[in-house]
Amino acid sequence: MHTPICDELGIEFPIFAFTHCRDVVVAVSKAGGFGVLGAVGFSPEQLEIELKWIDEHIGDHTYGVDIVIPNKYEGMDANTSTEDLTKMLQDMVPQQHLDFARKILTDHGVPMPEGEDDNSLRLLGWTEATATPQVEIALQHPKMTLIANALGTPPKEIIDQIHAAGRKVAALCGSPYQALKHAAADVDIIIAQGGEGGGHCGEVGSIVLWPQVVKAVAPRPVLAAGGIGSGQQIAAALALGCQGAWSGSQWLMVEEAENTPVQQAAYVKASSRDTVRSRSFTGKPCRMLKNDWTDAWENPDNPDPLGMPLQYMVSGMAVAATHRYPDETVDVAFNPVGQVVGQFEKVEKTAAVVERWVNEYIEATQSLEAANAAAGV
Q1: Which of 15, 164, 200, 340 would be a feasible disulfide site paired with 229, CB 3.0-4.6 Å?
Q2: CA–CA distance, 223 with 30 (Å, rounded to integer)
Q3: Cα(184)–Cα(187) distance, rounded to whole angstroms?
Q4: pLDDT under 50: residue ranges of the chain
Q5: Statement: the pTM of the whole predicted model exceeds 0.85
Q6: Residue 120 confidence (pLDDT)
Q7: How far apart are CA 170 and CA 197, in angstroms?
Q8: pLDDT at 191
Q9: For the segment 39-98, what is each residue's pLDDT rounded down to a tens digit?
Q10: What is the arrangement of strands in the sheet containing 275-278, beginning at the earlier edge strand?
């Protein structure tokens, strides 16, 4: 399992692992893949602590950082400071939305300490103004060799800044049109994420999307995302022209992840039909486990989710509660995960997952070779 992108990034396997857990980043990179730390939710100071820890534990391996700068969001045209932007957006959040969110949590017995629903500090990384300091911090770490944007084409000045530092830029997309915009902006690596993927995604399925994007931006490298949970699926992605796999859901189910056994049991219990594309946490369609929170925001009698980043300023209290009380909030938690959740059966070590995927890939490709040989091809 080796493609040109492995040589470009100095990695053994074209397995890219998106995670919010620094331990998983290190474990994946040490196992021959490429760990990517999700920066959203980290202040610049917190991100510096995380990256310094990664630097100290990852050895000679490299890793990436994932940021979130949407192409469109509330307040994006405001020419103001981060503090003033935060205050402006805070004032745009209707009190009824905050009250409704708090009621969902209290009705489920989730403790809500005084000030827990304060929405003034919930914009960490969700706008260009708040993500730019994260980029600056990331570029100070030599082992950090790739910055990916999860939503849309990064602003030109950020792409130029990353390239000037000798690092690569990646960006996710859900259509050939978006992929072409990335390529025109000189994004180095296009990540084509099918609708079955966890987190923010479009509606087109992976097996349809991947070859369309590969054709649209050739010869620029494309990574396949959405529905990656085995070596066979990686083999399918490479057969469709991709140079590697961008995965996320699987890394919730490894020993190094921060998830508790109760949270991981919920993933094992879930089928692929138990996920839903919902705007209830971030304001943009995001695939996650369906639960009482997502159901409540779908009810037409209740408030409609706000746009990004306003909705996260509402749902942030649920996210904070999930971190503080992970085992008590499963029914209202923000659980981004793809339809591949239906394949999860157990928790494994990260290195074991990488090894399994490589072996499954080899078995899949050997099976195809045997079929071709039998057919006289």
Answers
A1: 340
A2: 20
A3: 8
A4: 120-121
A5: yes
A6: 46
A7: 17
A8: 98
A9: 988 889 999 999 999 999 999 999 999 998 877 666 666 666 667 777 888 888 999 999
A10: 199-200, 286-289, 275-278
Q: Tell me the per-residue pLDDT of 88-135, one tens digit each, with 9 for 90 and over.
A: 888 889 999 999 999 999 999 988 766 555 554 455 656 677 788 999
Q: How buried is residue 315: exposed, middle or buried, by Cβ count under 10 Å (0-12/13-18/19+)?
A: buried
Contact criterion met (CB below 8 Å) for 289 and 341: yes
Question: Residue 29, CB half-sphere, CA atoms under 13 Å: how many?
Answer: 29
Please report, as a single letter, which amino acid is at residue 29: S
